[in-house]
Amino acid sequence: MKLLILTPYFPPEVGAPQTRLYELAVRLVRRGHEVTVLTGFPNYPSGVIPEAYRGRVRMDETMDGIRVVRTWIYATPNKGFYRRILNHLSFMASSAWTGLWLDRHDLMLVESPPLFDGLAGVFLRLVKRMPSAFYIADLWPQSAVELGMLRNPLLVKVAEGIERFIYRFSDRLLAVTRGIEDTLHAAGYRHVFFLPNAVDTGAFHPEVDGSGLRSRLGLQDRFVVLYAGTHGLQQKLATLVEAARLLETRGLPVTVLMVGDGADKDNLVRMGTGVSTLRFLDSVPRRDVPELVAACDAYAIVLRDIPLFRGARPCKMFEPMAAGKPLVASIVGEAANLIQEAEGGIVVPPEQPGPLAEAIERLYHDRDLGKRLGASGRRYVVEHLDREHVVDRFEELARNLLPPAVAAAAPGAVGS
């Protein structure tokens, strides 16, 4: 099978879509498939293109057997709604043009958000006459409306029209959560396929040693609660900052370590000024994340309390589960239900610092509880959410979309 992945987000950038698509692509290559990624020049979330990629309008490179075709993009920080829209529109236009000159592929996978990728995907699907799957990690424009980022009624209607158009001209809609799947079904779409987020249970493992990093950070004698990921509006990380402030008043040797970047980080740093239990670090390269997770005693998952997120399951929660770390989760809905089913952590109501601080304090005092929760979470993701299982499901999808002759000739499960 020759697969084309269309996305503005790809390594060396760090983030959920970057990791999800890279891990899928590299495993498909190992199984004998040919994978091309059509993406932009790395710039998320800082808006700064690394020096090695500057001054070009197109660049071809190979990354672990994956052909990566990079095309021009208007680089901007992950701040400001309309500048981000310009970023998305620029990639839509340049990827559609660059895609014209690529060979025809057997299947195209289009990542969303952003929604506008889908317009480039529809264009290439029709011109190249290849089946396409639209991979929906976040319902847009619904998420932008509920987060207060998109308020203009006319623009909302335009975005909703674009959404319906893309869904209609995609051969499959891939949902990363059951909540997204249910929403699409309720809207009348029947060509939906569940393809969840997953984790590399080999890279994230209880035997990974994080003691060296703890020592370098001066955290040897601290109980470390880690949050690693985007510091954005969706996360409502002010809840975690205020929980750290409450823990400081209780005199416990706890450090809440917040690692990453995003639109809300400057505000969070200002909020946390002078809080001794709180520490901020910049994003780390993807290769260093397993050691970072191994260095913590518990991992925090925080989301806003809005209806949209009741159907969310943040992919970042699966990495600490695989590493045998207990979760403290300030969430509600699908993700909360999964953690409780897995017995992998303590769930508290969202946007309430008090219960979150109490959950952290409970794990500080009861280390055996943390070990039991961590071990149970590890068992759950190994059984249900290992990345190889997701690749199996993707090959099942491809088997249903590809012409019989192509499917029969493809390696691995597609030809079985």
Written account of the structure:
This protein is α/β, with parallel strands linked by helices. The chain has 2 domains: 2-198 and 386-415, Rossmann fold; 211-384, Rossmann fold, CATH 3.40.50.2000. The protein is built from 16 helices and 14 strands. The protein has helices spanning 16-30, 81-100, 117-128, 142-146, 153-168, 178-186, 211-216, 238-249, 265-271, 289-294, 318-322, 334-342, 353-365, 367-384, 387-401, 404-409, and strands at residues 2-6, 34-40, 58-63, 66-71, 107-112, 132-136, 172-175, 192-194, 223-228, 254-259, 278-281, 298-302, 327-330, 345-348. The strands form 2 sheets. Strands 3-4-2-1-5-6-7-8 form an 8-stranded mixed β-sheet, sandwiched between helices. The protein has a 6-stranded parallel β-sheet with strand order 11-10-9-12-13-14, sandwiched between helices. Strand 9 (223-228), helix 8 and strand 10 (254-259) form a beta-alpha-beta unit. Helix 1 packs across helix 15 (387-401). The relative contact order is 0.12. The mean pLDDT is 91.
